[in-house]
Each structure stands twice: as C-alpha cells, then as structure tokens.
Amino acid sequence: MIYDIEHSTEYRFHKPVSLGLHRLTFRPRDGHDMRVLATELDVTPEPKRIDLVHDVYGNSVALILPGSPAETLRIVSRFSVDHLGSNVFALPTASESMWMPPAYSAAERLALTPFLVPSFDDSGQVLRSWAQPFADQGTADGGPRRTIALMTEALRNGLAYTRRDAEGVQTPQQTLALRSGACRDYATLMIDALRHLGIAARFVSGYLYSPADSALDGGGATHAWVQVYLPDCGWFPVDPTNNLIGGNDLIRIAVAREAAEVAPLTGEWYGRTEDFDSMAVGVKVTARIEA
C-alpha cells in the first residue's frame, strides 16, 4: 500500500516576533517493511538553514532556523511511503519463546536495557497488579505473545479514547484510574506494563491510516503506539488504542524510550506572551488507488 502524508503546523502571532531553532521529527523510519519514496519540507518564512541529523535512536530530525522577524511560521512536511506490512507476530514460535518473561540472550538484554526499565514509579504496585494477570495467562498458555495480545485487547475494550490537546502524557496509574486517555496515554501505559513483566517495549510516533468509514481511533493527527521486542519476532508494532498488532495501517516516524523524546515539533520564539495568537495543525493520510 502506498500512502501520501502531509503534516502542517502553523503558528500565528499578533506582531512580528523573532524565531529560534525548531526541531522536527521528519523522515519516516524505513526498512524491509516500509520504503520511503519521496520527502519534501516547506518552511515559511524562508529558512536561514535546514540541517538533517540522526538522534540517539537513529530517528531523522530536521533542525530548522526560520527567517525572522515574522507574524506567521508555517512548516509543512510531505512524504510518500510504500508500506508492505508486518506479520512477524504470526511467525512460528520456538519452544523457548513460550517462556515468561522472554528468554532474551545476554547481547539482546544489554541492548534492550533502556526498554526494560519502567519510566514511572509504581511504588503502590497499581500497574504491576493490573499487568500480572496477563503474564499469568501467558505463562499458562501461549507465552509472551498471548500476554501481549490479551493486554492489547483489554486496553482497547477497557478504556475510552479521548483526543487531548494538552502536552505531555498521563501516568499509567492516572490512565487506569480515569479509564480513558489519548493514544499516547494508551501507549505509555502498555509500555510500562510490559516492562514490569520483563518484556522490552518502546514508544512510537507516526501516523495512522484511518479512512472516513473506518472505526479506528487516532486518525487526522499524529498517532502513538508501541513497538515490542521478542527474540523470534524482532521489533513489531502494537497499537493498543485500536487493538492492532502488525498490519500496514501504522506509518512510523520515530521511536524512543518514552513520549517526551519524540515530540513532532518543538522550537523557540522570542517576545511577550500576549504576542502569541494561535496554532493550527493538520494531518492528511491518503492511500493511492491502484488502477
């Protein structure tokens, strides 16, 4: 499936302000399951410079220094990808892959250490108590894959999805207490729950293909989900917001240990607080119709 994505962000000010460096997670993370066909970046006003770098996780980041002063800053990224999909979750399971927690090798465990340590304090054992029954069921039958599948389904069916504009994430304990959250809250909860069970997981930021007649939640904006690592699967996508494992609806841009490290766009401007007017964000994901 070939997708065309456009992500626009526009900042408006009441008077011209000075604009500082902006950091944009830009180019999709391609691989054997997804190929990047084209990319384009438009910045208004004309930027003084644009530099492309890789962050500590290997994500492609555009460092943009816009021309200023200006009353409006508009950044539009466009790209096309050929998404072949992921089906590794259905690969044959080796006998040792039935163990809970997964039997990571010494080399795997060393590389996976950042993704095995929970991000949030759980001194009250609230999250661990919620997660343990899924591990028990996996231990009884099916191993880590069953644990992951059951947890993904439980989050989809047990929480109410809400689109939230406020920055940051809820703690896993807050999401469990509220029984609701945005996609990044679902992902954050699942990541820490899996880590408590000894299963490596990391945060993914990207886009969801969700046509008008789709029942999927999270389209029309950036979307967040989870990547999980198992020895006989490697890294594979899990979307607890929509109870998706694998497939080709999830278009990844960046991965990290936690959500705060992969904000779609951050930057600086200099002026008075009252100089700021508004911000508008638009995301379009379209699938090409093959003749």
Describe the structure using short key phrases:
globular, 5-stranded antiparallel sheet, 7-stranded antiparallel sheet, 291 residues, alpha+beta
Q: What structural class do helix, strand and pairing data support?
A: alpha+beta
Average pLDDT reading = 94
Query: Helix coverage percent of residues?
Result: 10-25%
* Helix-strand pattern: EEEEEHHHEHEHEEEEEEE
Describe the biggest sheet? 7 strands, antiparallel
Tell me the distance between the termini. 13 Å
Q: What is the helix tally?
A: 5
Rg, Å, rounded:
20 Å
Task: List the SSEs and their pairings.
Layout: E1 2-25, E2 34-44, E3 47-54, E4 60-66, E5 70-83, H1 106-112, H2 126-140, H3 143-158, E6 160-161, H4 172-178, E7 180-181, H5 183-196, E8 200-208, E9 223-230, E10 234-239, E11 244-245, E12 250-256, E13 265-270, E14 276-287
Parallel strand pairs: 6-7
Antiparallel strand pairs: 1-4, 1-5, 1-13, 1-14, 2-5, 3-4, 8-9, 8-12, 9-10, 10-11
Helix pairs in contact: 2-3, 2-5, 4-5
